[in-house]
Amino acid sequence: MTEQAYNFAYLDEQTKRMIRRAILKGVAVPGYQVPFASREMPMPYGWGTGGVQVTAACLTPGDRLKVIDQGADDTTNAVSIRSFFSRTAGVAVTEATAEATLIQTRHRIPEHPLTEDQILVYQVPIPEPLRFLEPREPETRKMHSLEEYGLMHVKLYEDIARHGAIATSYDYPVKVEGRYVMDPSPIPKFDNPKLSGCPALQLFGAGREQRIYALPPYTRVDSLDFDDHPFDPSKADHDCDLCGAGDSYLDEVIIDDAGGRMFVCSDTDFCRSRRAAGHAGRLGTPAGEAA
Amino acid sequence: MYVAVKGGERAIKNAHALLAEDRRGDTGVPELSVAQIREQLRLAVNRVMAEGSLFDPDLAALAIKQARGDLIEAVFLIRAYRTTLPRFGSSRPVDTGAMACSRRISATFKDAPGGQILGPTFDYTHRLLDFRLAAEGQDLPKPATADPVAGPVPHITSFLNREGMIETDRPGDELPPDLTREPMELPAARALRLQAITRGDEGFILSLAYSTQRGYGRTHAFVGELRIGTVAVELDIPELGFAVEIGEVELTECETVNQFTGSKTEPPQFTRGYGLVFGQTERKAIAMSLVDRALRWKELGEDDTGAPAQDEEFVLMHADNVQATGFLEHIKLPHYVDFQSELELVRKLRAEGAAQRPEAAE
Fold it and tell me: Which of A26, A48, A205, A265 does the annotation list as catalytic?
């Protein structure tokens, strides 16, 4: 059911065209933050308005949309954004990563490998990787244009000097095709390797900060590190307690008052399809039995 | 067994139904009408119009009702609606000199052509709770009336202008940038700064202005003139070749007169701060003119004292309460994934620390 009072996917065509131009520029200059005239959306700034605008500009009536937040399709904000597009665009929706043509995500990259026929749209809170080192926008833009990233390397070095390791576990900065340092959005650093050489088009939208940036398919993306302290995409040292996967990113769930806990896949679709295929973890039941 | 936060869809629906019920409150009490809000909570309506950047008292009143009186939420509703409206043109600059003033005061001159008009103001009221208002349905005494001032009411600063005592604003033909159609670019021209401040949060602008009075970027402001009233909005119709009045809006305009000791290029003279806000919103308009003046330090060759109100990027990037409230409240959203990776990191750093300090662990 599409609400007739609004244009397809809510935004008017002029606005979508403006956003598409910003996206094209972003694709042409991978990792560069393109300013765009972000609009007020009917959901709050900071709740995915950038991603929603990028999605709105990319959606066509034939698309099949998946929305995840923290890897899960049924977290409240993912539900809210998915129902927004079912209402305003009437597009098909799915929870299966492989079946989706466009996936909007917050804080995760799906475990299931993406394909050339897919677009992954990230919601970005603070697009500027240098923001917490230099609060002024004219300064950081200058640093990017001069490729002046010394401050970032000093920060990473100081981490190692103080903690023995780089003390950034999510929102871990990357370098795109050896040029722009880019904020991959607050995905866990476990997901960083999936950014590189990805067959899908990856688009990043920051509504409040009015920036769009992009990684075209098969772009090389390196997580910043040092030769003697190589990047380490760590995760919890467990297997999923429901599906038994040892290679997926895990959420820790507290299950009783005595400090008992379990680890489960943060990617709910990945976990469910593994269980449907007969896999079971320590506490799990395979194939659709009520858990 | 594992029971995570599932069923988001049903939970959201139920929460919204509860919200609607709470908004209505006790059904034994008659429901508020939008017209009642528009007429009797007019200053709230004005604030929502000003910060929502949309002059429509009925919609603002509806937004206040829907937002249960949360004015920032109401501003947000208006902004979200506003973006869906087609834009069919830009009006001519409004002429505040031709304003039909309901209030007009000057703190710098005892009297001036056009006179001082107190109008509907809280000034000089004694802030005693009026318990008669709790008993509804009483008759109000009829206020005295006078004929409106005929003809244009000249701006008070124009009298100073004749002596060359105050800086002259150079009129320009260039189209001002539009904050709602182009991304904010810094450094910003004054027109863009004023746009951002007039729709900025009243509390934030008030506090910044107050900070300049207490010494953080002091500019010694006098209210040269504060006027409230309606002005005509005119639109050029290309097919007709002339401008047509399409309606009128209520505005509050404040011009401050500020001390300036002169610079290498300018003789000592007074300078201006400017505030212009939808509706009767005088606190906001005065605050706006103080912040505007504080932000002009560079153009006037003054010192940067490092005061927050002098910092253009700080002021402009944090004045919008719709942006601020959205980003602030987004930390209510799930952050399991980020938090989990932080947990792993802290555990790892603690384990490494303990391994390096065996004696401390004992």
Answer: A265
Q: Name the residue with higher pLDDT: B219 or A247.
A: A247
Q: Which two tokens stand for residue A215?
A: 């990684």
- pTM of the predicted model as reported, rounded to 2 decimal places: 0.90
Query: In terms of C-beta distances under 8 Å and separation of at least 24 residues, what long-range contacts does B242-250 make, across chains too?
Result: B243/B92, B246/B91, B249/B55, B249/B94, B249/B278, B250/B46, B250/B55, B250/B278, B250/B279, B250/B280
Half-sphere CA count of A10, side-chain side, radius 13 A: 25
Q: Which residue of chain B comes nearest to A83, CA vs CA?
A: B9
Same domain, B199 and B314: yes
pLDDT in tens, B52-68: 999 999 999 999 999 99
Instruction: Please name the residues in contact with A180: beta carbons below 8 A apart, sequence gap of 6 or more.
Output: A29, A30, A31, A32, A144
Q: What residues of B are in contact with residue A241 (Cβ under 8 Å)?
A: 2
Identify the pLDDT of residue B361: 45
Host domain of residue B41: 11-82
pLDDT greater than 90 at residue B353 = no
- B153 and B302 in one domain? yes
C-alpha distance from A76 to closest chain B C-alpha (Å): 5
What mean pLDDT is predicted for residues A78-92?
A: 93
Residue with tokens 């009186």: B69
Q: What is the pLDDT of residue B49?
A: 98
> What's the mean per-residue pLDDT of chain B?
90
Report the number of distinct structural domains present in chain B. Answer: 2
Task: State both tokens at A77.
Answer: 């904000």
Residue B90 inside a domain? The answer is no
Is the model's pLDDT at B301 over the cut of 90? Answer: no
pLDDT at B168 over 50: yes
Of A243, A244, A246, A281, which one is the catalytic site residue? Answer: A243
- Per the omega criterion (within 30 degrees of 0), is the bond before A188 cis? no
Provide the residue type at B266 as one letter. Answer: E
Quick check: is A198 catalytic? no
Range from A11-20, B80-89, B351-360 that averages highest in pLDDT: A11-20
Are B336 and A241 a contacting pair at CB < 8 A?
A: no
Is position B342 within any domain?
no
Chain B residue with minimal CA distance to A49?
B326
